[in-house]
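Title: Request for sanity check on Reactive intermediate/imine deaminase prediction

Description:
We are preparing a figure and want to confirm that the structure record we downloaded matches what your pipeline produces today. Could someone re-run it with the sequence below and paste the raw structure tokens into this thread? We only need the token string, no images.
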Amino acid sequence: MVAIKTPRAPEAIGPYVQGVNLGDLVITSGQLPINPETKAMPEDVADQATQSLKNALAIVKEAGLNANNIVKTTVFVKDLNDFSRVNEAYEAFFNNHDATFPARSCVEVARLPLDAKIEIEVIASR
């Protein structure tokens, strides 16, 4: 296992790594919607979804892969009433990268770190 670290995704806010490279698989930690350059988090849930996906993709790219290699995502959302807005942003993200939609789980959670509205983790395969 090799830890992945990139400045194109936010630093971990706890005792964990941005992601791990297992050779055939790359697994990211949950990505909050923090812009790695500004350290700010957008307010809008759709913008947060896009930023979380950008952060996850940056980690995947650091391992030499791209959006088409993402085979599974897990979406943690604070309010499932935002599901349709998250879906729109999610669909646009993968369409903008000419990528096939991966398998996905989406669950509502009581609270996320830094009071984010969304957090997304991905698994990519070579």
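Thanks, this matches our download. The first helix runs from residue 45 to 62.
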